[in-house]
Structure to design on (125 residues):
């Protein structure tokens, strides 16, 4: 099975690799630091494109890809409160507090470049 791939533009590839492998259970697939790395978690492949990578090159009109938008990958967690406490204990940055809706609970975590990861715990049925 081919993994699903998402590209994140990052400011520092090494810091991003450390973040995703050290805190969120990803493994290094390809390491071309400082320009690029790819990390995997199950069927997800995350492409980390630094300033020196082809994925971060300027567009013909001069616009540059930048990190930190609102599109995000979503990681399921079995116990959201426990995971948030663990990550806050490691000094990681969140955009909000846990919110709960009909489908479950979620919170938005930022990587070192400001890209968003949604941690989600489905509602019990």
């Amino acid at each position: 099975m081919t993994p699903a791939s998402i590209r994140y533009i990052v400011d520092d590839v090494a810091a991003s690799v450390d973040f995703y492998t050290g805190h969120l259970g990803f493994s290094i697939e390809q390491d071309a630091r400082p320009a690029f790395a790819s990390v995997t978690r199950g069927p997800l492949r995350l492409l980390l494109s630094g300033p020196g990578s082809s994925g971060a090159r300027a567009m013909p009109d001069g616009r540059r890809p930048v990190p930190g938008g609102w599109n995000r990958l979503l990681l399921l967690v079995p116990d959201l409160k426990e995971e948030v406490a663990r990550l806050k204990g490691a000094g990681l940055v969140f955009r909000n507090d846990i919110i709960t809706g009909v489908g479950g609970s979620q919170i938005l975590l930022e990587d070192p470049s400001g890209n968003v990861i949604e941690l989600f715990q489905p509602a019990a049925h």
